[in-house]
Amino acid sequence: MGNMGIPMATQLIEAGYEVTVYNRSKAKEDTLKAIGALVTGTPKDLTEQSDVIFIMVSDDAAIEAVFNGTAGILSADASGKTIINMSTVSPAISKQMASACAAKGCAYLDAPVSGSVKQAETGQLVIMAGGDEGTFNKVKPVLEKLGKLATHVGETGAGNNAKLAINSLLALYAQGLAETVLFANAQGIKTEDLLNLINNAAIGNIFTKIKGDAIIADQYQAAFALKHIVKDLNLAKAEGISSPLAKTALQTFEDAAVKYGEEDIIAVIKEIKAD
């Protein structure tokens, strides 16, 4: 129930679904409890009380804990349940958990999302799913309450790979925008003027607008923490991405994470400027 989980759960509550939530740090449940969510003490309890279980955590280690930890999902009577892992994690962990779920008689989809907090708050996420297509079609109406697009892209792990591809491009966007702003500043061009040009040109997009505004305001509170793009680039590397830009971005963001890992992805501009 973090930056993404709270607004996503809110969308489901507002759509009329009965929602039960579990979070490791209990204070984060209070916001949802106040608008009608039920709360439960363990992933096991939540699984047994729910038909569809959504997971939104930070990494493979958290997935291991949610599934296999004390009172985890796999300790539940999960027969007939659908588990939807919306976290950005490795395809390997999805394949492992899909196999474990099948042994328990429940279905598993990897369905990570593209979009940040604002898109989660407005139900405008883009959802890419891997796994059984019949299972996807069964839960697609629920997914469409969370996003403006929900697409089945292949077998188990395909959703994860699609997300890693998208986040690799996200890293290139962030580094490219940062370098472009700094180059223009060095030539005496104001950041505001440059971004006005970019956002009215063919190369402008939602990302350049939101992150450009953050640069202008010198505001780097994390909507998507820089440390997470390092994780994602390393996951993409493990899956075989080895192109020149991907290698450069990984090195840049690893360097930036030393000081700016808890800040937003666009805080990479401070690392590049320091160099």
Shape estimate = globular
Rg from alpha-carbon coordinates: 20 Å
The H/E string reads: HEHEHEHEHEEHEHEHHHHHH
The number of strands is 8
Secondary structure category? mainly alpha
Uncertain segments of ≥5 residues (pLDDT<50)?
none
Please write the CATH class name of the largest domain. Alpha Beta
The major beta sheet can be summarized as: 3 strands, parallel
What is the CATH T-level topology of the largest domain? Rossmann fold
Q: How many discrete structural domains? A: 2
Compute the number of helices: 13
Order of the strands making up the biggest sheet: 3-4-5
Q: Return the average pLDDT rounded to an integer.
A: 96
Please give a structural write-up.
With 275 residues, the chain is mainly alpha-helical. Helices cover 53% and strands 12% of the residues. The strands form three sheets. A three-stranded parallel sheet has the order 3-4-5, with helices on both faces. α8 packs across α13, α9 packs antiparallel against α10 and α11 packs antiparallel against α12. The relative contact order is 0.09. The mean pLDDT is 96.
Q: Topology of this structure?
A:
Layout: H1 5-14, E1 20-21, H2 30-33, E2 38-39, H3 43-49, E3 52-55, H4 60-68, E4 82-85, H5 91-103, E5 107-110, E6 113-114, H6 117-121, E7 125-130, H7 133-143, E8 147-154, H8 158-186, H9 191-199, H10 206-217, H11 226-238, H12 244-260, H13 268-274
Parallel strand pairs: 1-2, 3-4, 4-5, 7-8
Antiparallel strand pairs: 6-7
